[in-house]
Design brief:
284 residues; alpha+beta; Arc Repressor Mutant, subunit A; 3 domains; two-stranded parallel ribbon; elongated; DNA-binding
Length: 284
DNA sequence: AATGACGCCAACCGCTGGGGT
DNA sequence: AACCCCAGCGGTTGGCGTCAT
């Protein structure tokens, strides 16, 4: 069953807004606010559906909207936030005052995604010449789909994700034996393709996401005690601080690698951590 | 000057989750 | 528990402007 678009009902207007409509909407919201978007157009005397009014206000008419081109800083922030959050445009917009989710989404699709694809293409071309890594995966460059939703393939599953969605974890899981650790330091390690390396992870316990990571600033390593959770109930993530990438996402967190042992093998994860006072918690 | 290709972006569509009954 | 209503979200579309031929 296909639902008819709301605006098709009874001659409601669609398409671009006129300055007069804008004026009516602004004036009404200034006087009465927007408690009920559905009722608003009728009360304001607009031949639009509530949804259309809401969108026009949120994306264009709000007084705190910042118009004009995105600055370099804003673009970099979007790239970083997209790395962390994926296509959660509203969450990204919340970090960029004056910018709307729609605007950010458009900028991403029209500028930033293309730019990143080019950059990654260049990086992968460079790697092809210098690579010593044993790779079981076909040597394809980062795909557009990976760029479209990096958060889903570079992080442990979020509480919103299905715990049966194993591929989102395995997508960046690299397998290393303990022996490979030293090799890794020399820049060599085995990268295991998710398609050819199958392993089932137990479901993530909800408590994982709320457990705090205690950080020991003095030692070279700190330990993230997962409590019950990620791989099995006894697991701990060894966070090797030397492996912190030192990337500080706008003061909100750190990008680091984490290791967990499972069936005699070490599994490495990329985790984003955010600081909350003294402790650090997994961002996702 | 005409026209087709392309890029941008405002607006729309359909889905989802929360709250109320 | 089931249903309805609504706001909010992310994906998609279509119109318009610009550029290349």
């Amino acid at each position: 069953m296909v639902r008819a678009p709301c605006c098709e009902k009874m001659g409601l207007k669609r398409g671009p807004w006129t300055p007069e409509e804008d004026r009516i909407l602004i004036s009404y919201i200034h006087k009465h606010g927007h408690v009920n978007w559905r009722a608003l157009p009728k009360q304001a005397g607009l031949l639009r559906c509530g949804k259309s009014c809401r969108l026009r206000w949120i994306n264009y008419l709000r007084p705190d909207i910042k118009r004009g081109n995105f600055t370099k800083e804003e673009e970099e922030a979007i790239i970083n936030l997209h790395q962390m959050l994926g296509n959660r445009w509203s969450a990204i917009a919340a970090k960029l005052p004056g910018r709307t989710d729609n605007e950010i989404k458009n900028v991403w699709h029209t500028h930033l995604k293309k730019r990143l694809i080019k950059q990654n293409q260049a990086i992968s071309d460079t790697k092809k010449h210098s690579k010593t890594t044993i790779t079981t995966k076909s040597e394809s460059s980062q795909s557009e789909s990976e760029l479209t939703n990096p958060a889903s393939n570079s992080l442990p599953m979020s509480p919103q994700q299905s715990s049966s969605d194993v591929s989102s974890v395995t997508a960046v899981t690299t397998r290393e034996t303990n022996d490979h650790m030293e090799e890794e330091n020399k820049g060599e390690h085995e990268v295991v393709d998710i398609d050819s390396f199958e392993i089932s992870f137990p479901a993530i316990d909800e408590s994982f996401w709320s457990d705090a990571l205690s950080s020991d600033g003095n030692s070279s390593q700190s330990t993230l005690d997962l409590g019950q959770g990620m791989i099995n109930n006894d697991d701990q993530f060894q966070i090797d601080q030397s492996l912190f990438s030192s990337v500080d996402f706008m003061g909100m967190g750190y990008d680091c690698n984490a290791k967990s042992e499972h069936d005699g093998m070490d599994f490495w994860y990329n985790i984003l951590l955010t600081t909350e006072g003294e402790s650090m918690v997994p961002l996702f």
